[in-house]
Amino acid sequence: FNLSSNIALAHLAGNLKKRGHTSRRLGDVMSNLYMASCVLRMYEVQGRKKEDLPLLKWSMEHLIGNAEEALGDMADNYPNKFLGGLMKFVGMPRRSKPTDKMGTEVIKTILNPGADRDRLTDGIFVSSADDATGKLEKAFTATVEILEPLEKKMKKARKEGTISAFDRDEAVKAGVITKAEKKEMEKVDQMIREVVDVDHFDSYKIEDAKVAKPKKVKAVSKARKAAP
Q1: What is d(CA 25, CA 75) in angstroms, rounded to the nearest whole number?
Q2: What would the pLDDT profile of 184-210 be if each residue is shown by its tens digit?
Q3: Which residues contact 117 (CB under 8 A, 6 or more apart)?
């Protein structure tokens, strides 16, 4: 970044301000590097916890990847092709991006209730249980603590041949889950539906709705009418 910015400043000088794309991309590099330094600082301040390593690795790869992408775009579109090629050859040894495996590790960290998730989400506003964020948090907790363990039992039973399908009624008859557990699963289903549901309008109501026709506006003003 230092090499590329110094070359751009030495070559373009005051014209760098006129090169909007070039200056914007340099700004993108700088902002992503700054955020990467903030991530490292937070990791250091919070005691270099082993549990935070997946988050640290993903964040660094993501931010450095964004910076490298902006730097590469600037080099590819630099007005002087020789200098652009030099910046790309010297300053762009690789382009990094988070792998799918890194993303999976991050998801596991975030989706596991406990002290680590509470620490990471500290300060995030959660409203009352009747509001959107409250319902979301409540449904999340119920899914992890109630729904997922019972579904794992059913999957195991299906794999072993105890039940032929992933059906709750059949699971109750086979003794895999109890009637009370089935009701708990249904309650969690309802909680999830309340979170993901969107406004619904019956099609016939939309079709029968009367749409007011726009009034015609005369293009000629009164002043023009009065003119000779």
Answers
A1: 10
A2: 999 999 999 988 887 666 665 566 656
A3: 109, 110, 111
